[in-house]
C-alpha cells in the first residue's frame, strides 16, 4: 500500500524536492566562481527551481480549497479528499466520495474519469 499516498502529500513532496534541487544547483554555481557567466546561469537556474516550487506551493493552496474534509473511518482523524478517491493523510486508508466506488479496490484511474 505504500505505493500510494495522499495527493496533497505527493505534491508537497514534489515542491520540497524542487527547493532542494534549486539549492543544489545554486550551490553548484559556487564551484564556477572563476567564470561569472556560468555562475550566474547556475544561480538563475537555481532561482527558477525555487520559483517553481513557490508556484507549486501556491497550487497546493488552491487545491486545498477544493478538498473535502472528512473524518477517516480507519484512524478517526480529520483528513482531506481531493478528487473522487484519495488516501487518508495519516493512515493511507483509501477513501471515496462516490458511493458507487465504495468497497472497491483503490485505483487512481477513477480520478481521471472524474476530471473530464
Ligand atoms: Zn486515516
TrEMBL record:
Topology of the protein relative to the lipid bilayer: Multi-pass membrane protein
Pfam families linked to this entry: DUF2614
Family per record: Belongs to the UPF0295 family.
Keyword Magnesium: no
Major site of localization recorded for this protein: membrane
Listed GO CC annotations: plasma membrane
Transmembrane segments: 12-32, 38-60
UniProt keyword list: Cell membrane, Membrane, Transmembrane, Transmembrane helix
Name by which UniProt lists this protein: UPF0295 protein D0469_12970
Domain of life, per lineage: Bacteria
Nucleus among keywords: no
Compartments (UniProt record): Cell membrane
Amino acid at each position: 500500500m505504500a505505493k500510494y499516498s495522499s495527493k496533497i502529500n505527493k505534491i508537497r513532496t514534489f515542491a520540497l524536492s524542487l527547493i532542494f534541487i534549486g539549492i543544489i544547483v545554486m550551490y553548484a554555481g559556487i564551484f564556477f566562481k572563476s567564470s561569472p557567466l556560468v555562475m550566474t546561469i547556475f544561480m538563475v537556474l537555481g532561482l527558477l527551481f525555487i520559483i517553481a516550487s513557490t508556484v507549486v506551493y501556491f497550487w497546493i493552496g488552491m487545491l486545498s480549497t477544493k478538498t473535502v474534509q472528512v473524518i477517516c473511518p480507519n484512524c478517526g482523524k480529520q483528513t482531506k479528499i481531493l478528487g473522487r478517491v484519495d488516501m487518508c493523510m495519516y493512515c493511507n486508508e483509501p477513501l471515496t466520495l462516490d458511493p458507487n466506488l465504495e468497497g472497491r479496490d483503490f485505483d487512481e484511474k477513477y480520478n481521471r474519469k472524474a476530471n473530464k
